Amino acid sequence: MQAVIAVLPGDGIGPEVVAEGVKVLQAVAARFGHTFTLREGLIGGCAIDATGEPLPAETVALCRASDAILLGAVGGPKWDDPQARVRPEQGLLGIRKALGLFANLRPVTVHPRLIGASPLRPERLQGVDLIVVRELTGGIYFGEKRRERGPDGEWASDLCLYTEAEVVRVVRVAGQLARRRRGKLTLVDKANVLETSRLWRSITTRLVREEFADLEFETMLVDACAMHLIRRPTDFDVIVTENMFGDILTDEASMLAGSMGMLPSASLAEGRLGLYEPIHGSAPDIAGQGKANPLATILSVAMLLRHSLDLPEEAACVEAAVATVIDRGIVTADIATPGQVIATTTAVGDAVAAVIAG
Ligand SMILES: NC(=O)C1=CN([C@@H]2O[C@H](COP(=O)(O)OP(=O)(O)OC[C@H]3O[C@@H](n4cnc5c(N)ncnc54)[C@H](O)[C@@H]3O)[C@@H](O)[C@H]2O)C=CC1
Ligand SMILES: CC(C)CC(=O)C(=O)O
Ligand SMILES: [Mg+2]
Predict the structure, then answer these.
(1) Which ranges constitute the DSSP H helices of 35-163?
(2) Nearest residue CA, atom 6 of ligand 1?
(3) For the chain, which has fewer Cβ within 10 Å, the N-terminal or C-terminal residue?
(4) How far is the C-alpha of 317 from the C-alpha of 311, rounded, in Å?
(5) Which residues line ligand 1 (CB under 6 A)?
(6) Rounded to an integer, what distance in angstroms lies between the CA atom of residue 89 and that of residue 78?
(7) Are residues 146 and 135 part of one domain?
């Protein structure tokens, strides 16, 4: 097949891990006889430096003209000035909004060999296989922001707003996913305190009754969920939640898999176009040192192949190659056990590409 893929490396370790994702795409193209045309664009801090804007219009146009988008990460201390008019993160939020990428799928599985590297008890990690469906274009990250000075000094506010339509469409995605998996859906909210959460709960409960009565359905408060993710992670199948809760819970859940460098994601709209990125940020503390784990990005490539390009065999081939490379002990420091030889970012990507090549 022929496909155009927009590549947005971004900042920090973004370019390092995306280079390995691209390597894997090229290995897949060579093995299966596809033509992937890769077109690079600017987003985040590097885009601010080059154009003054975190999301140049050309980047949006490039993404719209592509079949899928592969993204690294944005941000870093260079652009952290609180007084700045533009911030790298606006580029990421902007592309999600511009393309209507409302459903962010973040799967969490644990490779057996990494169980030993985890500080968590092995019996709790055996068989973890859950997916968080995070609402991605609404809520507090997108609400009106205010910062003013009043008689008692400065004050600030971030509006958290959700409409019924926004909740319904993402819960439908989660419900359909649960039906194809183990049939369990968990709504995570803070309905004891937040009005937006009470809206989520009433809409989701009604929708499940009307359209997903075959599913096992439960609701859970977000603070309790943070605890249960560690205590009994195998009890979860599909979790659906609002933007900020999903953001925070998936950083926590990444530690079930061993590292932030292990969790991929797919950000989906109504059609086939999707944006694929690791859940982690630009990791300035390890940028430029060859230490970044590229597997979250490579597994995001697998999601790209499956969801946007409809290439399930190729996706499975990438996932199997990742498992093989972990089995062979070719891993970066974040998932290595004490005494294990540490591989560089490039060495891990090379190893995955070599397994795909056969
Ligand atoms: N999607 C995105 O582009 C995101 C961007 N950010 C931005 O990234 C910058 C850094 O934020 P942090 O809070 O430090 O979060 P981070 O996710 O970049 O890093 C958190 C910790 O995880 C480690 N880590 C992350 N990815 C890794 C990988 N692939 N391999 C090995 N270790 C990895 C880092 O070294 C760090 O110790 C900030 O500017 C933030 O705004 C944060 C989260 C998401
Ligand atoms: C700009 C932030 C919302 C990025 C982030 O932390 C994420 O999407 O996981
Ligand atoms: Mg995050």
Answers:
(1) 45-51, 57-64, 88-98, 112-115, 122-125
(2) 281
(3) C
(4) 10
(5) 13, 17, 73-76, 89, 92, 259-261, 277, 280-286, 292-293, 296, 334
(6) 13
(7) yes
- pTM of the predicted model as reported, rounded to 2 decimal places: 0.98
Query: Last residue of a domain, which of 208, 224, 257?
Result: 257
Write down the mean pLDDT value for the chain. 97
CATH code (residue 204): 3.40.718.10
Q: Any binding-site annotation on 82?
A: yes
Over residues 35-53, the pLDDT tens digits come to 999 999 999 999 999 999 9
190 catalytic residue (yes or no): yes
Domain boundary (227, 257, 287) is at: 257
User: What would the pLDDT profile of 250-266 be if each residue is shown by its tens digit?
Assistant: 999 999 999 999 999 99
Calculate how far, in angstroms, residue 281's C-alpha sits from the geometric centre of ligand 3: 7
Beta carbons of 335 and 262 less than 8 angstroms apart: yes
On whether 85 is known to bind a ligand per the annotation, the reply is yes
Is 141 known to be catalytic?
A: yes
First to last CA, the chain: 20
Pairing of strands 153-158, 35-40: unpaired
Mean pLDDT value of segment 54-76: 98
Q: Count Cβ atoms below 10 Å from residue 50 Cβ, excluding itself.
A: 10
Domain match, 21 and 7 both: yes
- Encode pLDDT of 137-149 as tens digits: 999 999 999 999 9
Joined tokens for residue 1: 């097949």
How many angstroms does the Cα of residue 73 sit away from the middle of ligand 2?
Answer: 9
Catalytic residue status for 11: no
- Which range marks the domain in which residue 12 is found? 1-117+260-358
Q: Whose CA is nearest to atom 5 of ligand 2?
A: 247
Do 184 and 296 lie in one domain? The reply is no
Which of 247, 277, 282, 300 most suits a substitution to test ligand 2, by most atoms within 8 Å of the C-beta? 247
**Number of domains comprising the chain:** 2
The answer on 163 and 140 residing in a single domain is yes
CA of 280 to the centre of ligand 1 (A): 5
